[in-house]
Amino acid sequence: MFVALSAFLLLLPAVRAQCPDFAVYSTTPQGTPSTGPIGLPFMRPAPECRTFNSTAVEKVVANMTSRMMDADLARFFENAYTNTLDTTIKWFNENLTFVVTGDIPAEWLRDSCNQFKVYLPLLGQDQPLQELTRGVINLQGTQVLLNPFLHPVFKACRRSAAAATPARPSRPPENLTIVWTCGYELDSLLSFLQLSRLYFQYSNDKSIFTFNNGGWFTAVEAILQVIAEQATPTYDADGNVISFYNISGPNQQYMKNDGRGPPKANTGLIGTTYRPSDDVVYFPYNVPHQAMAVVELRGLAALLKSAGNLRPDIQSEALARASTVETAVMKWGTVLTKDWGEVFAYEVDGYGGAAMQDDPNVPSLVSIPYLGFMNATNPIYQNTRKMVLSTTGNPYYGFGPVIRGVSSPHIDEKHVWPMGLVTEVVTGTDDADILVKLEYLKNTTTGLGLMHESVNTHNVEDYTRPWFAWANSYFGETILQLAQTKPHLLFADGKAFDYASVLQS
C-alpha cells in the first residue's frame, strides 16, 4: 500500500510554465475590479490555467452573479465558490483525485471533504465533476487505509516509545514519512463518512463501494475501530493505563503523557487528540466532534441501507454508537453556568474538566445546527451561541474596528477567523445580523476577494493565508444557502435560487 501510494504521488504534475503559481498570484489583486464600492478584483486564473473546468459550476456562477444586488459580494462569491476547482486539483484520473488545501501543498481529509461539498448538488448535471468527486472519496479511502490516525501527505512523524502499553499496543504505520502532519482528529474521519453519504445522495453512484476491491468498507471498518478504541477510558478496572494512540507530529504540539494526551473518564464519548484547527485538545472529548459523530454515524447507517441494505453489521454498530454518544453528550457535554444558563462546553474529560470557549474551525459549537445535530432554536444551543459570541463569555472572541468574531489559539487571540463568521451566517436567523457579518467578510479580504485564514482585529493588513480553499468553498456554500432560504438578502426580485432550473437552462 505504501509503495503504491508513494508511486502515485510522484506522478503529481509540475505546474505548467505558462500559468502563474496561485500561491503568489493570490497575494495581489488581479483582473478587473467589481463595480461595487470596494472594487474587489477578479481572482480566477485564465480558463486554460484552471485545474478543472465544470460546465455546471459556470452556470451557477453566471446565474448568481447576474442577479446579486451587491457587486462586491457577487465578485467575492465567484472567486471563492470556484477556487477549489480552479486552483487545487493537482492530479486526477478516472479513479483518484488529489486535492490540496491551497497554499499548503497537502491534502487533509477534512479540508478536501469540505472543499467539495459545495459542488455536490451539481453532480447529476456534470458527469466529469461527478467522476472528479468520486476520485476524492477513493483517494481518501486509500489514505484512511494507510493509517486512520494520520493526516496525509509527506512528512515525518515521531513514534512515542512510552505511549503504547502491553495490553493495548499501538497501531502506527510502518512508514511515517509520507504524511504531512500526524495528529489524530476525529472530525477528519467523520468528514470521509459525510462526503461519502452526500456523494451517494446526489449521484446514486455505488462505484465507491467497489473501488480497490471494496476498500471503502475496509476504511469504514478502520474508522469504527478507531472510534471504539477512543471511547475507551484511560484507566482499566485495575488502574492500568490504556493507550491506543502514540503518534504526534513535529508540525504540531506533541501530546502530554508520552503522547497519550490528557486522561479521559468512562463516559461513552469519543476521544480525540487534536482539534479541527490542528491544535492539541485541552480535554479529550471535543463536544462538536461528538455532535458530528452522532449525525455521521447515523448517516453511515442510512447510506448503507439506501444503497441496498449493505453491511447490516456496520449499520447496527454505527446506530448503537450514535445513540451512546448522543446520550453522553447531553450528560457530560453541558455545563450549568451562572450567566448563560445550560450551555455546551467545547471540550470535557468526564472528571469535571471543561474548556469554556469555541473555535472557528468546523465542527464548532456555533456550527451545531449546520452539522445537523440540533435545530438552531434549541435552548441549550441558543445559550451556547450567546456565550461564545460574547466578549465576556468566550476568551477567544476577538473584537476591534476591523472585525469581530471567534479567534483561535492556533494563531492567537487577536486574529479573528472569517470562517467563524461564515458559520454565524450559515446558522443565523436574524437578517440584520447576517448582513453585518457579510459586510465584515467583504471588507476583510484585504482587497483580494478571497477568504483569509485569520485577520487582526485592529489591522486588516495583518492576516494569515491568502489561499485557503476550505474557507472559500464554505463561503460559497453559505451564499448559495442564503440564495435558497433568504433570497431577499441577495436578489432584487427576492426569488429563490433553484439548482434544477439553473442547470437545465
UniProtKB/TrEMBL annotation:
Higher taxonomy: Eukaryota, Fungi, Dikarya, Basidiomycota, Agaricomycotina
GO biological process annotation, one example: carbohydrate metabolic process
Alphabetical keyword list: Signal
Name by which UniProt lists this protein: Glycoside hydrolase family 125 protein
Keyword GTP-binding: no
PANTHER family given in the database record: MEIOTICALLY UP-REGULATED GENE 157 PROTEIN
Signal peptide (from-to): 1-17
Organism name: Mycena sanguinolenta
A GO MF label: catalytic activity
Record bears the keyword Signal: yes
One Pfam family per UniProt: Glyco_hydro_125
SUPFAM superfamilies: Six-hairpin glycosidases (SSF48208)
